[in-house]
From TrEMBL:
InterPro entries: MFS, MFS_Cyanate_Porter, MFS_trans_sf. The keyword Membrane applies. This is MFS transporter. Coiled coil: none annotated. GO terms for molecular function: transmembrane transporter activity. Keywords: Membrane, Transmembrane, Transmembrane helix.
């Protein structure tokens, strides 16, 4: 067996546990948008409030990302199990049906997901250091596949399960709880071995680096495009005459295309001297796709395919930039927390503003034009973030 291209048997169990973890980090976020209309009918919330409901998990992802530091104090596995139980509890609370439960549950589940997001790079670096690129690709593919499956099942589950949309949202507590139980033995066994460690300080703070800020903004923009698409595009499509089922299918197509791109991108990146042109091109595809939804809505499937290509490329690039723009794993850890906390806070404004602009204008073209503007800006951000350099080397050069 080729050790460079495969995962040995001794890594099979932690690899399966990591895949199971990744499979639980997106369904709770991507299903709400497809159920907004029945949620609004039951609760009477406005489109702006619905946009806030879509954005709250993203806001919480940004706010709670620094909780990943608890992994150093209590151990990665112990912190991760606590996060998974918090995710499970949040899903159950959100499915109770009241407006208060919707928001409280969304905040709780997002806190659990935020911690999981931040801890995964450390687990990959620790357990799969010599196979980090391959394992990161598997992780990203699992994220995309689970999100696509959840999106495709959201509406059918609301029709099949008792409670309608409540059952469709609550069903995801089952795999989350199972995953927590899978990780629990490792938390008990390894917790004592993961005592607080004294990490070397990063010589340059990413918060003072323009390169790090470009990476962070790129991370935020790709998240914003994705969550606006899965959160609001189903409603846009339904208002244009598509059925709820077909609207969900369009989003599944978008996510499956993005998933395929995430599998192909590592091969492209391996041959590229830097990622500037690729990142700019990915953002350009997103801009053209949204523009197409405005001027040629009859080709919705085509535009969502092209947006899936651009969005999938942006996703894998955003994850790769954390490692590629860092000189060592200490810098990568600090850049990961910065890019995910600030990036998700930026992304959180997307669904809220999208719904607010519709409430103010009573049409969808204005919020879509804002997406075009943001995607155009991301072309230049991606070009800067994709240049072959580390954030510390640029900052130290300026200081010398």
């Amino acid at each position: 067996m080729n050790k460079q291209s495969s995962i040995p048997y001794t890594h099979a169990v932690p690899m399966m546990a990591l895949v199971l973890l990744a499979a639980n980090l997106r369904p709770a976020l991507t299903t709400v948008g497809l159920l907004i209309e029945p949620i609004r009918e039951t609760t009477g919330i406005s489109l702006t409030t619905a946009g806030l409901l879509n954005s709250l998990p993203l806001l919480a992802l940004g706010i709670f990302a620094p909780l990943g530091h608890f992994g150093r104090r209590f151990g990665l596995e112990r912190t991760l199990v606590a996060a998974l139980f918090l995710l499970t509890a949040g899903i159950l609370v959100r499915s109770q049906g009241s407006v208060a439960a919707l928001f409280l549950g969304s905040a709780c589940l997002a806190a659990g997901i935020a911690v999981g997001n931040v801890l995964v790079p450390g687990i990959i670096k620790r357990d799969f250091a010599d196979r980090a690129k391959g394992v990161t690709t598997i992780y990203a593919v699992t994220l995309g596949l689970s999100a696509a499956i959840a999106s495709g099942l959201a509406v059918p589950l609301s029709q099949w399960l008792p409670g309608g949309w409540r059952g469709s949202l609550g069903i995801w507590a089952i795999p989350a709880a199972i995953t927590a139980l899978v990780w629990l033995p490792a938390a008990r066994r390894l917790g004592a071995n993961n005592s607080p460690s004294h990490h070397h300080a990063t010589p340059v703070s990413p918060w003072r680096s323009m390169v790090a800020w470009l990476v962070t903004i790129f991370m935020g923009m790709q998240s914003l495009f994705f969550y606006v698409a899965v959160g609001w595009f189903p409603t846009v499509f339904q208002n244009r005459g598509y059925s709820p089922e077909e609207s969900g299918l369009i989003i599944v197509v978008f996510q499956l295309v993005a998933l395929i791109v995430t599998m192909i991108m590592p091969l492209i990146l391996r041959r590229a001297h830097d990622q500037a042109a690729i990142a700019a091109g990915a953002a350009f595809l997103v801009a053209i796709s949204v523009l197409g939804l405005i001027y040629l809505p009859s080709a919705t499937y085509f535009w969502m395919v092209t947006m899936g290509i651009g969005g999938g490329a942006m996703m894998i690039l955003a994850l790769a930039f954390i490692s590629l723009r860092s000189a060592n794993h200490h810098e990568a850890a600090s850049l990961s927390i910065m890019s995910q906390s600030v990036g998700y806070l930026l992304a959180a404004g997307g669904p809220v503003c999208f719904g607010l602009l519709h409430d103010l204008t009573a049409e969808w073209n204005m919020p879509l034009w804002v997406l075009v503007a943001l995607a155009t800006m991301s072309i230049f951000v991606g070009f800067g973030a994709g240049r072959n350099r580390t954030f510390s080397s640029v900052t130290l050069k300026k200081q010398s």
